[in-house]
Amino acid sequence: MVLVYLIKVLIILVFAYSLFMYGVFSQSDLLDDQPYRTAYHFQPIKNWINDPCGPMIYKGIYHLFYQYNPIGNGSPNGPRVWGHSTSLDLINWTPQPLTLEPQMESNMNSSYTGSTTILKGYKPTILFTGITPKNEQVQDLAYPKDPLDPFLKEWVLAPQNPLMYPNPQNKIDSTSFRDPTTAWLLPDGNWRVIIGSKKERKGLALLFKSKDFINWVQNYDPLYSYELTGMWECPDFYPVFMNGVSMGVDNSIIGVNTKHVLKISLDETKHDVYTIGTYDFMNDGYIPDLGFENDSSLRYDYGKYYASKTFYDGVKMRRVLLAWVNESSSLDDDLKKGWSGIHAIPRRIWLDKSGKQLIQWPISEVEKLRVKPVILPMQVLKGGSRIEITGISAAQADVEISFKIKEVSNIERFEASWSNPQLVCSQKGGSVSGGVGPFGLLTLASQDLLEYTAVFFRIFKNFDNKFVVLMCSDQTRSSLNPTTDKTTYGTYVSVEPIYEGLSLRVLIDHSIVESFGARGKNVITARVYPTLAIHDKAHLYAFNNGIQDVQITWLTAWSMNKANYIA
Ligand code: DQQ
What separation in Å is there between the alpha carbon of 54 and the centre of ligand 1? Predict the structure, then answer.
């Protein structure tokens, strides 16, 4: 008997070992003991990553490149090369060889952020910022060694590099000239590209033109600039359809039914801000509808979300937005984990029918990971109460909840001085009782509620009797670890809460909580590191800490399968 048992154990061990050797277990399975690794967000096995670079779809395959420090453990210090992964759905990823490693003087010190453009004849190219041995920033071109390879595994640098460098006459510092956008082609036969820059503290979107993609000439005026905004990193410039049409538009299409979006990553505040406006392509100028208001402009995300980039997916006719979400943990903790940085779930992005803001929604492919839905019947969520949503893996979930507000007799007055929603959220966190709200979700909560991340709404009435809806992500109790950054985030949502109701969708993935308010009007992403609410010890609650009852009209929560990825 004992012998048979031992033989069985041996067979199982040999089988498991051979599965491992043949790669059936991905490396990420081996790291399951790490509570902060995500299950369905893009991240590397080890080391530091930051900006998404050159996303595109080519021969039916999605390509994602990213800034990668191959020697940096969890630390940013060190050179950057481009990591590369491919996918059929932007959720499950296969790693490809690193690329744009130092090959010539113009990228000897690093290969910084850039974009892809598919030229006539279906020829993919990369334009990126090379860092020279003198630490100057220049723009380089690379193209695939074998364009017939749909995985585009190998890239070669153009011998003519660098193609663009800062013009000393323009007094542009050679360390402030980076991050080329996807280029667009106009009927005059010129490709155009924007490079992020600054002159003193004036932020600049420099414009370059080229007929052959090799010889580039700088336009006398930048496409757009703004005083006192500091360095503009990772600019993005693209058309969107008007009238709420959610279909995307190719970068080279300039039409009557489109507006343009200019997005800038503000180095000084680490916020991705955008404006909606008109591209005067005859004069190569951009006129934002509402002007540019520096850091208080519209943002893609009011939490942690930076160096974003969009691409047009011509197969699904949508524009997809990707971004880097940095850690909020200490450098020591990152070094212990051996990795740092993840990417947000790709979002579809389009112009709201009001024309005043963009709408973002997780790409539908993420829904393929949803399992075991738990549905809550419509019910009243009494003031001062909470209910647990059981039956899901609360550390790895996708939750949709909608609220109806019937009564507002206890509503609080909005104060004119509350111009900064983040500050209001910090003062009126999830545990501070109000009139109508806070109500929402307690995510990544420990059973004893010593830890939780509260995502919620709070409604006020201002002096002209209009409602003001505040959306917050309160991290103050997200972790018992004293060294993690627990900044609370907030935003005002442009919605009529009584007629339209209020909805919230939250993607929870171990150390990230991505919250979409009012069907994607406002988004807040937070990184959190619970010490108790990990794996199956995490709980999820709907809560209402206001005096006023609210009604839950819809709640569905799904456990999420693990994506099959190795970045
Ligand atoms: N990260 C890159 C730069 C870019 C910055 C370097 C933004 O090209 O400006 O890794 O995060």
Answer: 13
- Find all residues with CB under 8 Å of 73, minimum gap 6, and list them: 46, 47, 48, 334, 335, 338, 339
| pLDDT averaged per 10 residues in sequence order, the chain, 567 residues | 42 33 34 84 94 98 97 87 97 97 97 98 97 98 96 98 89 94 97 97 97 97 96 98 98 94 97 97 95 82 98 98 98 94 98 97 98 97 98 98 93 96 97 97 98 98 95 98 98 95 98 98 98 97 98 98 76
Query: What is the rounded CA–CA span in Å between residue 4 and residue 86?
Result: 45
Residue 292 pLDDT: 76
Q: Write down the CATH superfamily of domain 365-560.
A: Exo-inulinase; domain 1 (2.60.120.560)
Question: Quick check: CB of 233 below 6 Å from ligand 1?
Answer: yes
* Ordered DSSP codes for 420-460: -HHHHHHHS-TTS-BSEEEEEEEEEE-TTSSS-EEEEEEEE
For ligand 1, atom 11, which residue shows the shortest CA distance?
A: 307
Ligand 1 midpoint to CA 271 (Å): 13
> What pLDDT is attached to residue 565?
62
CA 76 to ligand 1: nearest atom: 10
Q: Are 499 and 329 in contact (CB under 8 A)?
A: no
For residues 302 and 422, the answer to whether their CB atoms sit within 8 Å is yes
Instruction: Say if residue 220 is exposed, middle or buried (CB neighbours under 10 Å; 0-12, 13-18, 19+).
Output: exposed
- Which ligand 1 atom lies nearest to the CA of residue 80? 10
CATH topology of domain 2-362: Tachylectin-2; Chain A (2.115.10)
Cβ neighbours of residue 202 closer than 8 Å, sequence gap 6 or more: 225, 226, 227, 228, 229
What tokens were used for 329?
Answer: 């943990």
Token pair, residue 12, equals: 């199982």
**Ligand 1 and 514: CB distance under 6 A:** no
Mutate to test the pocket of ligand 1, among 53, 67, 231, 263 (most ligand atoms within 8 A of CB): 67
Q: Give the pLDDT score at 10.
A: 39
Ligand 1 contacts CB of residue 113 (under 6 A): yes
- Tell me, what's the pLDDT at 255? 84
* Nearby residues of 233 by Cβ (< 8 Å), 6 or more positions away: 113, 178, 179, 196, 264, 265, 266, 267, 307
Strands 217-218, 177-178: pairing kind: unpaired
Cα(179) to centroid(ligand 1), Å? 7
At 358, list the tokens: 């963009």
Count of alpha carbons within 13 angstroms of residue 89, beta-carbon side = 15
Q: How remote is the CA of residue 19 from the centroid of ligand 1, in Å?
A: 39
Task: Give pLDDT, residue 207.
Answer: 98
Query: Among this protein's residues, is 51 annotated catalytic?
Result: yes
Q: Atom 6 in ligand 1: which residue has the minimum CA distance?
A: 112
Annotated domain spans of the chain: 2-362, 365-560
Predicted pLDDT at 79: 95
Query: Phi and psi at residue 321, in whole multiples of 5°?
Result: -110, 130
How many beta carbons lie within 10 A of that of residue 292, not counting itself? 20
